[in-house]
Design a protein that fits this description.
about 50% strand; mainly beta; 7-stranded mixed β-sheet
Length: about 120
């Protein structure tokens, strides 16, 4: 029902920045919350941040709070993840997600993006 198309991944050095984008479409996408998860090599897929289309509430994982910012552009049906002060441990495939209660984990995800790779080198 909901389609999510991600972009913006790439390779950066530690301390650098990247901005990920996720374009949502489908009949019911605007009834769901949006967020980002990430999966590092050999690790589980973890919650990063989430937001509603109304702009609140916003949740961040402790590991990214203060460095990452999630936002939406409702006119473009797009959610962004601005990532600053990147660290090597941020290296992961980042997945856009639509669902409910995303901050509680991936169980509430209804749709996933295909993932975009972020590599942070030291």
């Amino acid at each position: 029902q909901v389609q999510l198309v991600e972009s913006g991944g790439g390779s950066v050095q530690a301390g650098g920045s990247l901005r990920l984008s996720c374009v949502a479409s489908g009949r019911t996408f605007n009834t769901l919350d949006m967020g980002w998860f990430r999966q590092a090599p050999g690790k589980e897929r973890d919650f990063v941040t989430s937001i509603t289309w109304s702009g609140a509430p916003i949740y961040y994982a402790n590991s990214v709070k203060g460095r990452f910012t999630i936002s939406t552009d409702n006119a473009k049906n797009t959610v962004y993840l601005q990532m600053n002060s990147l660290k090597p441990e941020d290296t992961a495939v980042y997945y856009c997600a639509a669902g409910l209660g995303l901050h509680k984990g991936g169980g509430g995800v209804n749709s996933w993006g295909e993932g975009t790779l972020v590599t942070v080198s030291s």
